[in-house]
Write a structure and sequence with these properties.
Layout (H helix, E strand, L loop, with lengths): L1 H8 L1 H21 L6 H4 L2 E3 L6 H4 L1 H4 E4 L3 H14 L4 H14 L1 H23 L5 H13 L13 H25 L5 H15 L3 H17 L6 H18 L2 H9 L5 H16 L3 H15 L1 H10 L1 H16 L8 H19 L5 H8 L1
Antiparallel strand pairs: 1-2
Length: 363
């Protein structure tokens, strides 16, 4: 009987149960969605002859349903020229939509979401405190842009959840390499170039800020560069170049502003409107103000320890001013902001009174 009571007192039980509940909720919410717009378009072979033809003239630029991996490769080659450079993300979408099946994607995506949550908490929060898990899960499910579809859509999830998870894994591995130096496991060293390339060649809104942040960080700390650090950074920078300088991406940028001052001003105004719709970013601003007033030392230490994240957020904000289409294109800003918010509040999770009541409310 005493052992049974000890089990129910163990916070790990509630963490596991909450993750299971979240996984079931996430999966059910995914499968009960109707496919729309791009989710349908990417189920077909892409055969455009000019930029954006998939959306403006689908009757002439779509050539039958995706049925083989050859169809995916030829479609992504065409998409690289006339769509954008997110070949990895859209390949995932087309493989699942046309070959493996949409329902299989929803299952895969659920596991990816849970793995992202687990890695995030292990990296930036106190993993033995169930309140840490509640805070992160609630933030992911409800505070990011388009919470009803961002993580669930077979079109949006490969473009935002997959790059986010690769970025998170990249941060995790790069810190392991920096901290452990010669004691890094062979698995980390073997997978580092793959993770770096996937993080870079996924979504420019994530890749450009992260690549720029690591570049600035190692320019300022040149002596910390070694061959192990470069294992992930060089593939990251290559992947970022591939996604950012594809003919489709360049054409997209030119159409959304380019060197036209009037259009650039319009894009900048839209960026300001999108920025006002964010939630986590403004929570970070409030948290920073509070820490400046009450605990400036902890704020400085947290920012110094997470300089790459701070640089990533700054570059993401600058990038978003000139390259944004809707509020969900600021997902990377929210991601970097969430990391910094969690880093700041993590030490206080243990000190919070009435954790059970707060946990019930969040649940």
């Amino acid at each position: 009987m005493k052992q049974l009571k000890d089990i129910f007192k163990n916070p790990k039980l509630y963490i596991i149960l909450f993750l299971l509940f979240t996984g079931v909720f996430f999966y059910l919410r995914s499968v009960n969605r109707e496919l729309f717009c791009d989710e349908i378009i990417y189920g077909y072979k892409l055969n455009a002859t000019k930029y954006g033809e998939y959306w403006s003239s689908p009757q002439t630029s779509l050539a039958g349903e995706i049925k083989t991996f050859e169809d995916v490769i030829s479609s992504q080659y065409n998409h690289y020229l006339y769509g954008n450079g997110r070949s990895i993300s859209h390949s995932i979408e087309q493989v699942f939509t046309g070959i493996i099946g949409v329902n299989a994607f929803y299952l895969f995506n659920t596991f990816l979401f849970l793995a992202t949550i687990i890695l995030f908490v292990r990296k930036y929060m106190l993993r033995h405190q169930y309140l840490s898990w509640l805070i992160v899960i609630v933030a992911f499910l409800y505070l990011f842009p388009y919470p009803s579809k961002l993580w669930y859509s077979i079109n949006l999830a490969p473009n935002y959840l997959f790059p986010l998870s690769m970025a998170l894994l990249l941060f995790y591995q790069s810190d392991m390499i920096k901290e452990k130096n010669n004691n890094v496991s062979k698995i980390v060293l073997f997978t580092a170039p793959i993770v770096g390339l996937l993080a870079g060649w996924s979504n420019e809104a994530f890749a450009v800020p992260i690549s720029g942040a690591f570049l600035v960080y190692y320019i300022l700390r040149f002596r910390k560069i070694n061959h192990r650090v470069l294992l992930s950074l060089i593939p990251l920078w290559i992947g970022t170049a591939l996604v950012s300088f594809s003919p489709g991406t360049i054409e997209r940028f030119m159409r959304n502003g380019g060197n036209d001052e009037a259009k650039l001003l319009e894009v900048a105004i839209q960026a300001g409107e999108n920025l006002l719709q964010l939630k986590i970013f403004w929570l970070l601003i409030i948290a920073v103000i509070i820490f400046i007033i009450y605990d400036r030392r902890s704020l400085v230490e947290a920012m110094k320890k997470n300089m790459v994240i701070v640089f990533s957020l700054i570059v993401a904000l600058l990038f978003g001013i000139v390259a944004n289409t809707a509020v969900h294109s600021f997902t990377a800003i929210e991601f970097f902001a969430l990391i910094l918010v969690c880093v700041l509040v993590a030490p206080y999770v243990v000190k919070i009174k009435y954790k059970k009541i707060i946990g019930i409310i969040l649940t």
